[in-house]
Amino acid sequence: MELRHVRYFVAVADSLSFTKAADKLRIAQPSLTRQVKGLEEELGAQLLDRSNKQVRLTKEGDHFLAGARRLLSYSADIVSSLHALTEPQPAAINIGYVPNPFQRASPQALPCTRKNFQRFR
């Protein structure tokens, strides 16, 4: 099973239309149909119920869709983590701020503090 075939199945399942999925994936609709049919044959299960104008998920297709989404998400995470290892990461500085109830008094208190500090030196 190829990841590409899983991606194709998810696109069809999301749109419930081979034509719309083919447009979204930017591939020919007959090719998409063959790829999904090949996936079904490889799995030994019918994932989509096709009629003249309607595509529906079968019970097996619904189950496979949940796993397929997890698989695609996991593969995207793997690629992202690999890029994070190979690309330099910008340095980050985190600054915390805690509101101070004496915030309004602080600017007025600084001159007095400076004056008293100089007196003790």
Describe the structure in your own words.
The chain has a two-stranded antiparallel ribbon. The chain has 121 residues and is mainly alpha-helical. The termini are far apart. The chain has helices at 3-15, 18-25, 29-43, 59-86, 105-120; strands spanning 48-50, 55-57. The chain has a domain at 3-75: Arc Repressor Mutant, subunit A (Orthogonal Bundle), CATH 1.10.10.10. α1 packs across α2 (18-25). The mean pLDDT is 84. β1 (48-50) and β2 form a beta hairpin. The protein has five helices and two strands. The protein is rod-shaped.
Strands in their spatial order, largest beta sheet: 1-2
* Known CATH architecture of the domain at 3-75: Orthogonal Bundle
Fold-level CATH name of the domain at 3-75? Arc Repressor Mutant, subunit A
The helix/strand series, from N terminus to C terminus, equals HHHEEHH
Task: Summarize model confidence as the mean pLDDT.
Answer: 84
The oligomerization state is single chain
If helices are DSSP runs of H or I spanning 4 or more residues, what is the number of helices?
5
Task: Label the structural class.
Answer: mainly alpha
What's the CATH class of the domain at 3-75, please?
A: Mainly Alpha
State the helical fraction: 55-70%
Q: What is the tally of beta strands?
A: 2
Q: Please identify which CATH superfamily of the domain at 3-75 we are dealing with.
A: Winged helix-like DNA-binding domain superfamily/Winged helix DNA-binding domain
Strand portion:
under 5%
